[in-house]
Design goal:
single chain, 65% helix, mainly alpha, two-stranded antiparallel ribbon
Length: 358
């Protein structure tokens, strides 16, 4: 909005020419998002408390979690509100990639909201059934993938990091592949959201990493120099990703241990979908699995636990997702959280190093 309102005036006011640059608008969007989250956070938490939107706690989980019962949840609504307002203010709204990423995030958030609402307000412990939740996610991801394919916003190919010449032309199979990436990322982040600030930390590091990747992919000269796929217009996603990272940073102020608010499915499902759709647009699907390795391990731990118990009657971990396993081994919750953050930062650095290893 600011880009469309102020940049045309640069002819008369040269200082407004800065709105032309993605870098300037990226920083502006990030600052706006973090301030928005910090300023509105206390009021948002009081609103959730008044509505008695307290988190239910599993009795079979770590006993230390029982004290968290009643902590306001659905705080992810604050993240989505911050992302939406900041993106609309600072992004080039003529860029279709921005709209696909933003709408995918918001509609997936709606699925999470319905699930949270049923659990917290309607006191239905099951919320949406797994089938209903997946159906909603698949429909939203399919719409995004189809739009990307039809509009040719991104090449329908799979690129392999470390190998500059390797690529796989997916053709129409790009659509189901993109759907799996988006839905998989959405659920992986949701499974990670089990400790105070655990999911938010890796989401910030992954968003910042993909901010850099998106900018490089959208800049013809940088993409040519680094020998990575050039995706016209994808640089604008840096603005969107800045709002994701900054909104999460502001939310972390209230979500850090001991948490004053939980993000709930409304935030976790949406943030995962955001990372998934951006990775598809920028042709970095494989790098998402590397950079978001924490999310991948959390999801795999659940899959391994379920498969092992069904086939052998034995559990691989004391409890899944894997962060609960470490808790039950005696690790304090803050230790689990910070160590997972450290791993996430290291994975982000490895991911960025692939830009020169082609």
């Amino acid at each position: 909005m600011l880009f469309h309102l102020l940049y045309p005036m640069h002819v008369n006011y040269s200082a407004l020419n800065v709105f032309k640059y993605i870098t300037f608008r990226t920083f502006g969007a990030g600052i706006t998002a973090v301030l928005f989250s910090l300023l509105l956070g206390p009021g948002f938490i009081r609103f959730l408390q008044r509505k008695q939107m307290g988190q239910a706690i599993r009795d079979d989980g770590p006993q230390s979690h029982l004290s968290k019962k009643g902590t306001p949840t659905m705080g992810g609504g604050l993240i989505l509100l911050s992302i939406t307002i900041s993106t609309l203010l600072w992004a080039d709204l003529s860029n279709s990639g921005i709209w696909i990423a933003l709408l995918t995030t918001l509609f997936t958030g709606v699925v999470g909201y319905i699930d949270d609402y049923r659990k917290v307000v309607q006191k239905n412990p099951k919320g949406l059934s797994a089938r209903q939740k997946l159906l909603g996610q698949f429909l939203i991801a399919a719409a995004a993938a189809y739009a990307l394919y039809v509009l040719r916003e991104t090449p329908p190919v799979l690129k392999f990091p470390f190998f500059k010449e390797w690529s796989l032309d997916l053709g129409v199979l790009f659509i189901p592949f993109a759907v799996l990436v988006i839905v998989g990322a959405s659920n992986a982040v949701n499974l990670t959201d089990g400790l105070d600030g655990l999911a938010v930390g890796p989401t910030i590091t992954t968003s910042v990493t993909f901010l850099i990747l998106a900018y490089c992919a959208g800049h013809a000269k940088i993409a040519e120099y680094l020998q990575i796929p050039y995706v016209p217009g994808s640089g604008e996603l840096s603005v969107f990703l800045a709002t994701v990272a900054a909104s999460c940073l502001g939310f972390l102020w209230f979500n850090t241990y001991p948490a004053q608010v939980f993000m709930g499915d409304v935030g976790a499902l949406a943030l995962g979908a955001a990372l998934g759709v951006v990775s598809v647009i920028t042709k970095n699907e494989i790098l998402l699995a590397l950079c978001g390795g924490i999310f991948v391990v959390e999801a795999l731990s659940v899959m391994a636990q379920v498969a092992s118990f069904k086939m052998t009657g034995k559990r691989v971990f004391k409890m899944a997702p894997i962060h609960h396993h470490f808790e039950l081994k005696g690790w304090a919750e803050p230790k689990v959280i910070v160590r997972f953050w450290i791993i996430s930062i290291l994975l982000s650095l490895v991911t960025l190093s692939t830009l020169k290893l082609r």
